[in-house]
Design a protein that fits this description.
about 280 residues, 12 helices, mainly alpha
Length: about 280
């Protein structure tokens, strides 16, 4: 029996599906191990069994006996400010570059792109000295500014590509109706940019929520720590409480999962919107 040109042989099909299953196992194993370990007693963290002695003690310990809720509040404040300011700044910057021509526009876009080339290890020392000189160490504002320097350049490029796909005639109709440029942007163009805003907001949220290096360097003292710094108090050179750390990690993952569930319907459209100009 002859096969069609694009039809795979049985052996190739078996190999493909075997590879997909193995890739799925590799991807799922770390979060599954994290979840299972969070329900084990402290002494059974590295046992090969699943949950032989189910317990919620790790979660109780994290929530009741540590400063976890304080760290959570600090992170929520910093991430909330970063997300709101980052989305607004990236959207207005992307719209301005997409719609207007002004001196220094191309150098500005190149500058935004070049800032993404520097790794954290190079930037952390000058940023630390800058924040220390401004008196912003151990201050939420310092981390917000730092995270904005990470998120805004990439998001501005992405929003610029998205605004390029929105017809200029919409702006012209706004001007005919007597709207100023910001009114046109706010009332007419921004509502059409919801998918792009969803991607920008999600990227900014994840950038601030999951960041470790800056949070550990800029914030000290238990009352000032964010979740990234707080996690390091469970497992370090002095303590080794894997049960508490895995329980805290599971709790930390819940807000990120909720934000993703809320934004996911817009993510595919937003990620692909700037690839072509229609």
């Amino acid at each position: 029996m002859t096969r069609k040109r694009n039809q795979r042989s049985p052996l190739a099909s078996v190999g493909l599906h075997t590879g997909l299953v193995l890739a799925a196992v590799v991807a799922v194993f770390p979060p599954l191990w994290l979840l299972v370990t969070s329900f084990k007693p402290k002494n059974d963290a590295f046992s090969t069994s699943l949950v032989s002695h189910f317990t919620l003690g790790n979660y109780t310990h994290v929530l009741a006996d540590t400063k976890f809720l304080t760290w959570f509040g600090n992170s929520a404040l910093i991430v909330g400010l970063t997300t709101v300011l980052g989305v607004f700044t990236a959207a207005t910057t992307g719209y301005a570059v997409s719609r207007f021509r002004f001196p220094g526009m191309r150098p500005l876009m190149w500058l935004l792109l070049i800032t993404q080339m520097f790794p954290v290890a190079i930037l952390i020392v000058p940023l630390y000295n800058l924040m220390a000189g401004l008196g912003l160490l151990n201050q939420p504002v310092g981390l917000v500014i730092t995270y904005l320097t990470i998120a805004v350049p990439f998001c501005a490029w992405m929003m610029k590509g998205f605004f390029d796909t929105i017809p200029v005639e919409i702006d012209e109709s706004g001007r005919v109706d007597g709207l100023n440029p910001f009114g046109t942007f706010w009332r007419l163009v921004l509502p059409l940019a919801r998918p792009g805003l969803a991607v920008t907001g999600f990227y900014t949220f994840v950038t601030a929520w999951a960041e470790v290096a800056y949070a550990s360097a800029f914030m000290t003292g238990e009352e000032n720590l964010t979740l990234a710094g707080g996690l390091q108090t469970f497992v370090n050179q002095y303590t080794n409480d894997w049960g508490a750390m895995t329980a805290a990690a599971v709790i930390i993952a819940v807000p990120a999962a909720l934000v993703f569930a809320f934004a996911q319907r817009h993510l595919v459209a937003g990620l692909t919107a700037g690839t072509t100009k229609g």
